[in-house]
Amino acid sequence: MTQTKPGRSMTSEKNATGSSAKITPEMKNSEFHRFFVDELKDIYWAEQHLAKALPKMQKASSSKDLAAAFEKHTKETEMHATTLEKVFELLEEKAAAKKCDAMKGLLEEADTIISDTESESFTRDAGLILAAQKVEHYEIATYGTLCAFARQMGHSEAAKLLQQTLDNEKNTDATLTKIAESFVNEEAVAE
């Protein structure tokens, strides 16, 4: 049986209007709220740096479909950062970035793939898709958890914004899979 702290129920309470919870001083000072905001800062940094890295991945792509997907996702990633700024505002927090070591490592891996593969090759494109999907899966895990945190704390408007970004990340991952499976992987094997 799951244990709860004294005075707490297993179900979350919603305010009378069903809208986002009011940010109280107690909430802002809670360890969980601080942790949530810290993770928002982490993904904010990640989105900002990914937006700078995607054009390089686009330029390194030989497939027009893959280059177009990277171009589209660059614009979406810039919008994700803007969306996070709205989430910070809803939480009455300053939008600030904290270095995301995970994203830093994933982007370094993408750079290594570019330098270790032949230009204009499908092997490079397959590697770029691999690198991009690693990024997408990291973002999907992060946004999924942040949505759950926001909902649990009663931040319904923030949760909606985070869910929109999560849905976008899933769509990008599906697009990359489609490109890989429709021709890139087959062409890479044939090289």
Structure summarized in a few sentences:
The chain has 191 residues and is mostly helical. The chain is built from 6 helices and no strands. It has a single domain (25-190), classed as Up-down Bundle (Ferritin).
The number of distinct structural domains comes to 1
**CATH superfamily (homologous) name:** Ferritin, core subunit, four-helix bundle
CATH hierarchy class name? Mainly Alpha
Query: Quick one: biggest sheet?
Result: none
Region (Disordered): 1-24
InterPro entries: DUF892_YciF-like, Ferritin-like, Ferritin-like_SF, YciF
Protein name: Rubrerythrin family protein
Pfam families: DUF892
Word description of this protein:
There is one protein chain. The protein is mostly helical and 191 residues long. It has one domain: Ferritin, core subunit, four-helix bundle (Ferritin), CATH 1.20.1260.10. Helix content is 75%, strand content 0%. The chain is built from six helices and no strands. α2 runs parallel beside α4, α2 packs antiparallel against α5 and α5 runs antiparallel to α6. The radius of gyration is 19 Å and the shape is elongated. It starts with 24 loop residues before the first helix and ends with a helix. About 7% of the residues have low confidence. InterPro entries: DUF892_YciF-like, Ferritin-like, Ferritin-like_SF, YciF. This is Rubrerythrin family protein. It holds the Pfam family DUF892. It comes from Niabella ginsenosidivorans.
